[in-house]
TrEMBL record:
Residues 434-449 have a biased composition (Polar residues). PANTHER family: OS01G0588500 PROTEIN-RELATED. Residues 409-433 have a biased composition (Basic residues). This is Protein kinase domain-containing protein. The keyword Repeat does not apply. The lineage of its organism: Eukaryota, Viridiplantae, Streptophyta, Embryophyta, Tracheophyta.
Length: 461
């Protein structure tokens, strides 16, 4: 659930003043005109939200195209995007988030000079949604000026009357959230999980170490998109903020983000730092290890919050196996899992100063993608040979002699003897380990709440 405040009035009614929707932590009131309008990028100053002030949407489009000159962003018309997406056909619908619906489209090589033919994802701003023009503009500004292999590529945008759209490169495997948590699908292998963790860490490190640092603020599994080779790219920069400058240690802002991912000190104080992103990264890394969502209210109460439940076990190798994703079926590097768990433990520290920087995280994860040792607890199935089945071939006369009857008789005598042992006047029953039984009364006596009984779970606000 997003920790956001919905607008009390319709976005449609304030479109004429859309450029003044800088609703957050400005020292000047939003209605005051800005003193300076930057119309040309400087190598020392990246265009920011405060640099745009004209209330007219027509002028805004012109200001953006001038200010972002050299960014290779294409300005599309609404008509062109309708052609690209076949009028936003339901057949091309990909998904929907807080920003609005996303449709797949295809750009013809004749549409724009220098723009190659390629599939794209077109995100349409929902005028009645949780996010608005400010998030759209923030995304254009950041992704229009930032380029990195692990940031999704923004190809262009549309700013026509009240319509606000964004055009991205198409990511065929969708989001990490879909790949990691969807049912009835093959589980992400260990190597892919480490590749995703490393790539996402590189994306965050690039933002934090830029000449003008950027705080992503909404790092989560659904904002990590994957290409055909599982290369991760960060998307959705609507909540991104410029980092503190000069002697400032933090940026004061409204608390916005997603429940389960936001750092505790940010939630309590509204003080935003790069370490807030590091905490969020620790949550995603924990999701990759456990295969569980950051918040899952379908589980028993003590396991609903992933960090609270799993973090105490991250630094204990003997308990680590309890929280590892069972869908991996033991097919993961034990050494890599221990190192990744130890890293997640540090990232999730309640003290921001004890968390590692993202560059340190990258250095820690880099060697983990090469570990290929097999877990000791891995179940290995061996195809039985004829000898193992108790069948022996006599090469002399070609006759097959069976020894299984002797083994069965021997096993029957041992089993019979074992089942009739009596201790303290009680008969012990022999039960095969292949067919365990569960006593419901024992489960209740251990205080375990079944997820099938929601009455036993408390909701998390």
């Amino acid at each position: 659930m997003a920790v956001k405040k919905t607008k009390a009035i319709s976005w449609r009614s304030i479109v004429p003043a859309c450029c003044n929707l800088v609703e957050e932590e400005e020292e000047e009131p939003p209605c005051m005109p800005k003193k300076q309008v930057v119309t040309k990028q400087s190598s020392f100053h990246r265009l920011s939200l405060l640099d745009l002030s004209n209330p007219s949407s027509t002028t805004l489009s012109e200001d953006l195209s001038i200010s972002l000159a050299g960014s290779n962003l294409h300005v599309f018309t609404l008509g062109e995007l309708k052609v690209i997406t076949q009028s936003f056909s339901s057949n091309n619908f990909i998904g929907e988030g807080g920003f609005g619906p996303v449709h797949k489209g295809f750009i013809d090589d004749k549409l724009r000079p220098g723009l190659k033919a390629q599939p794209v994802a077109v995100k349409l701003l929902d005028l009645d949604g949780l996010q608005g023009h400010r998030e759209w503009l923030t995304e254009v500004i950041f992704l229009g000026q930032l380029r990195h292999p692990h940031l999704v590529k923004l190809i262009g945008y549309c700013c026509e009357e009240e319509h606000r759209l964004l055009v991205y490169e198409y990511m065929p495997r969708g989001s990490l959230e879909n790949q990691l948590f969807r049912r009835y699908s093959v589980s992400l292998p260990w190597s892919a999980r480490m590749k995703i963790a490393l790539g996402a860490a590189k994306g965050l490190a690039f933002l934090h170490e830029a000449e003008q640092p950027v705080i992503y603020r909404d790092f989560k599994a659904s904002n990590i998109l994957l290409d055909s080779d599982y290369t991760p790219k960060l998307s959705d920069f609507g909540l991104a903020k410029d980092g503190p400058e000069g002697d400032d240690t933090h940026v004061s802002t409204r608390v916005m983000g997603t429940q389960g991912y936001a750092a505790p000190e940010y939630i309590m104080t509204g003080h935003l730092t790069a370490m807030s992103d590091v905490y969020s990264f620790g949550v995603v890394l924990l999701e990759l290890l456990t295969g569980r969502r950051s918040v899952d209210k379908s589980r028993c109460q003590r396991e609903q919050n992933l960090v609270e439940w799993a973090r105490p076990m991250l630094n204990e190798p003997r308990k680590l196996g309890r929280i590892m994703d069972p869908r991996l079926e033991g097919q993961y590097s034990e050494t890599g899992a221990r190192k990744a768990a130890a890293l997640a433990y540090l990232c999730l520290s309640h003290r921001p100063k004890q968390r590692p920087t993202m560059s340190t995280v990258v250095k820690t994860l880099e060697p983990l993608k090469d570990f290929d040792d097999i877990s000791i607890g891995t179940f290995v199935y061996t195809v039985p040979s004829e000898t193992n089945l108790g069948i022996k071939e006599d090469k002399k006369d070609g006759e097959v002699k069976k020894e299984s009857s002797k083994k069965e008789n021997s096993h029957h005598r041992q089993s019979h003897s074992h089942n009739h042992k009596i201790h303290n006047g009680q008969r012990h029953q022999h039960r095969s380990p292949k067919s365990p039984t569960i006593n419901p009364e024992n489960v209740r006596s251990n205080g375990l709440n079944s997820p099938l009984h929601p009455s036993k779970m408390e909701s998390i606000d």
